[in-house]
Amino acid sequence: MATLHFEAFFPFITTIISLLFFLSVTEQYFRKRKPHQLVWAISMLLFTITAGFEGLSLLLGYWDPLIYKTYYVLAAVQVAIMGGGALYLFASRNIINEKNSGKAFILFGSVWTFFSFLFFSCSEQ
Question: Has this prediction a pTM greater than 0.85?
Answer without folding.
Answer: no
